[in-house]
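Researcher: Quick test of sequence recovery. Tokens follow.
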């Protein structure tokens, strides 16, 4: 399957082509900082919102209209694929995602299914609804979790600060670790392809917890699976954004694992990150999300610093270094998007 072409400054930047202005979108641009989102969230649980295509499409479209961004990212959750694998997922208030039957033993890994990706068709239906509503105005980004991040959630049973159980399996039973990672790739790659078939024009791979690893461990235990998954996604014909948080210490290794665009968090200057990979991919980022809580003059100065560091080279997509925080004033985000679009034109 190959996707048809589409005119989009965001997609042009993914391919390192010149654009009229710097494209901008935001991680978690559909979220609690928006009153429209909070109104829906107050009536529906997180999983219900993900599984009802009408609700997922509505909250996906809200920030496109409100912020005038250059891409929509489908409203979903990284952990949705664990359900068709046989795990019990719920969202606990004030805690976040919880997996009630985490993966700890060889038997647990053996029983994980890789055959039920079609159970995630509600995400595809939501994407189709959004694509139809946008009518070509901006592209839709689909997303998936990277294998290490997915594995850590599945083993820990939720988020973690230390990743003790994850690393115990990784170090103590490498064969079991590799079986688990292989199964995750065999679920996530088809899930990404399902999103592309529904109309997603790019896929972002989130490695949210990769910064918990040492560089050599990343190369040994995670990179081969990220690389395999990313190549399978790229074979659909869409660009892949590879985003890892806390990975500035091994950004070259992250780049070697693949991606048409490398997402950068705020822990490294974007010019340094781009130079580290010899400008061989497009780059996305990387304003610290907490800057959006500062006075507007401070926000715009920090934004200009990011844009100046990117240097006008084709292939920069402006974004935050992580998601918009719930406490962020909407007006600050709107002004930021306008400011990025008004910045001097990138070089040809």
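Model:
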């Amino acid at each position: 399957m190959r996707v048809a072409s589409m005119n989009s400054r965001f997609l042009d930047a993914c391919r390192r082509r010149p654009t009229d202005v710097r494209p901008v979108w935001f991680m978690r641009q559909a979220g609690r900082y928006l009153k429209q989102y909070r109104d829906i969230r107050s009536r529906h649980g997180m999983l219900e919102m993900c599984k009802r295509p009408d609700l997922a499409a509505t909250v996906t479209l809200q920030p496109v209209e409100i912020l005038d961004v250059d891409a929509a990212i489908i409203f979903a959750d990284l952990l949705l694929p664990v359900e068709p694998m046989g795990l019990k997922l719920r969202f606990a208030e004030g805690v976040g995602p919880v997996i009630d039957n985490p993966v700890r033993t060889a038997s647990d890994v053996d029983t994980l299914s890789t055959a039920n990706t079609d159970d995630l068709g509600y995400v595809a239906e939501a994407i189709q609804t959004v694509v139809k509503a946008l009518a070509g105005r901006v592209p839709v980004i689909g997303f998936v979790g990277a294998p290490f991040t997915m594995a850590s959630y599945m083993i820990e049973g939720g988020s973690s600060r230390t990743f003790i159980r994850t690393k115990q399996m990784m170090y103590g039973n490498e064969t079991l670790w590799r079986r688990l990672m292989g199964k995750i790739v065999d679920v996530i790659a088809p899930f990404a392809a399902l999103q592309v078939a529904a109309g997603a024009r790019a896929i972002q791979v989130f490695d949210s917890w990769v910064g918990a690893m040492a560089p050599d461990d990343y190369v040994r235990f995670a990179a081969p699976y990220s690389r395999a998954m990313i190549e399978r996604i790229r074979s659909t014909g869409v660009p892949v954004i590879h985003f890892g948080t806390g990975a500035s210490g091994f950004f070259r290794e992250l780049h070697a694992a693949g991606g048409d665009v490398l997402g950068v968090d705020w822990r490294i200057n974007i010019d340094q990150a781009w130079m580290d990979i010899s400008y061989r991919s497009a780059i996305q980022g990387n304003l610290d999300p907490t800057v959006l809580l500062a006075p507007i003059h401070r926000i715009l100065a920090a934004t200009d610093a990011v844009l100046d560091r990117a240097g006008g080279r084709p292939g920069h997509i402006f974004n935050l270094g992580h998601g918009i925080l719930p406490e962020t004033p909407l007006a600050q985000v709107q002004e930021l998007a306008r400011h990025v679009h008004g910045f001097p034109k990138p070089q040809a």
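The first strand starts at residue 72 and ends at 73.
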